[in-house]
Structure formats: structure tokens, C-alpha cells
Amino acid sequence: MNNYPKLKIMRYLLLAFSFFWMIESTYSQEVSNTSFPLGEHIKFKIYYGWFGLGEASMSIADSLITVNNEHFYRTQVEAKTTGLFSWISGIQNIYWGDVNTGNYKTIVSEKHINDRKGKFDQWNTFDYDKMQTDVVMMKYYRDEPRREVTVDLTKNTYDIHGTYMYLRSKLWSGFNMGDSLLMTTYWEDDLYDFGMEYGGTNKIKFDGKKVTAHKFYALFPVSGTFPKEKAVTFWIMEKNGVGIPLLIEAEMKIGKVRCELKEYSAGNLNLMVAE
Question: How far apart are the first and last CA of the chain?
């Protein structure tokens, strides 16, 4: 492309990758242990071609939250444009949610987006007795900014935070080439089919060296943003019994976008990737 992406394309690009950054972080765990390391922090840099597009970080709080004698993880994702792209289309997204440690169902979550189009906030409250989610949206750039809806859930539905916790508890469990895991994911005010397919292992170049990594494909419907099947690929490296996410590549309508690991820390494990 000779010209920079338009503002609208940039906005949807960052929104889409906010989703995949969360899914990608599901693999940072001990292979045989379904619990999550408290205090985990993962940071990525995102590239569009050779240009630095933005940064994203994913974290789990240092302690659990207790509600009605049940325990919950507090998860958070932050994503923003950087450098030249920040000047063209400044975007900053923050997502957080409280996820049940037993069944990975989220009880509350929030989304806060700020870009040149304006601010967008969303609050979700989940009721699993009624199998519904109460949603409040505020799109401040509209004449009537407030919108309230109720979304029906299914037993196999997880929101964006619960999705990555659920996948994290299931993957690395004796998957063979071609094995897949399918589910339904709640996003904004709708439900989407989503899954992961195991693609075996191969060697990739990372931090100037060839390393062996597990390969996964994201499974979701073809769209205008992702115009082909298996458009998004993840590579995960095992290190000291922990899965470290190294790289995401996405074949998008506007071209190829990459997310590369910059920093990982969890418990006693610390990994820093050079700029």
C-alpha cells in the first residue's frame, strides 16, 4: 500500500487484535497445571509490514478477588498505537474482567476505547441463572450515546476474558496434529463461533535464533477483516515447563500484521526480548 491505512481500518485493526492478544495469552502456563500464575505480565509489539503499529500488554492481578465465597482472577489487556501510527490514528484500548477460578465464567467486565473517533465505554454483568448478560454501552460521539441491551448466553459461551482462561485450561493436553477445540465467544453484544486447531511444531526465527515452537491456528468465520480461513497463526515456545507466546501472524485484507513478544514475566520466570 502506498498510502497509510485510513482511520477506520486502523480502528478495527486494533480492536481485532485486542481480541487475539487475549486469546494468545492463554498459553502462558505450566503444561500439566490448569491454574494461572498470579502476577503474570506479557507485552507485545505489533508491526504492519516494517512499521511499528502499536503495543499490547496482558496481565493477571497479583491476588484473587472473592465474591460470595467464590474466587476470581482479575485480567486486564491494554492496547495502543505508537510512533507514526499514533499520530495518524491514536488508539488506546483497556479491557478488564473478573473470571471464576473454577469454571472460567466472567461475572463482570469492562471495555474502554479512546481514539480519534471518540470514546466508547462498555459494562457487562453476567447472570448465569438467567443465562443472560446485561450490557450498557456509551458511545459518546453519538447524539444518543447510551444503549442498553440484554444478550442471551449458551452453556458453551464464554466472554473474551473467560475464553482465554477456558482455552488455557484445555490446550497442551495431548493434542495431536489437526485436533481442534471449538466454543462460542461473546464480544460487544453478540456471539461468535471460535476455536483453535493444533498445527504441530516447527522452527521459527526468534530473537536472532532458530527455536522450536508449537503452532496453532485460530478458527473463526471469514470476514472483511480476515478474508480467508486460518488467517491467524500463533507460535508458542515451551521453556522450563511454561508455554511462552512468541509470535502471532495475521493475513488481513490490508496486508500482514505481526505481534512479537517483547517481555514476559510470571512468578520466578522472566524473559526480556531486545527492542
Answer: 26
Contacts of 81 (CB under 8 A, 6+ apart): 10, 14, 53, 54, 88, 89, 90, 91, 92
- In angstroms, the Cα distances linking 126 to 129, 157, 160, 163, 265 are 9, 11, 13, 14, 31
CA-based radius of gyration for the chain? 18
Task: Name residue 107's amino acid.
Answer: I
In the chain, the amino acid numbered 186 is Y
Positive or negative, the CA dihedral 102, 192, 74, 52 is positive
Q: Which residue has the cell 478495527?
A: 12
Q: How far apart are CA 217 and CA 121, in angstroms?
A: 30
In tens digits, the chain (275 residues) has pLDDT values of 433 343 444 444 444 444 444 444 433 333 333 467 888 888 888 888 777 788 888 888 988 999 999 999 999 988 887 765 555 556 788 999 999 998 899 999 999 988 777 899 999 999 999 999 999 999 998 999 999 999 999 888 888 888 877 876 776 667 889 998 888 888 788 888 888 899 998 898 887 888 888 899 988 878 777 788 888 898 888 766 666 778 888 888 778 888 888 888 876 666 555 45
- Apex 239 CA angle, 236 and 240, nearest 5: 145
The residue behind cell 507485545 is 44
Residue 132 and residue 152 in contact, taking contact as beta carbons nearer than 8 Å: yes
Rounded to an integer, what distance in angstroms lies between the CA atom of residue 213 and that of residue 231?
Answer: 18
**Is the pTM higher than 0.85?**
no
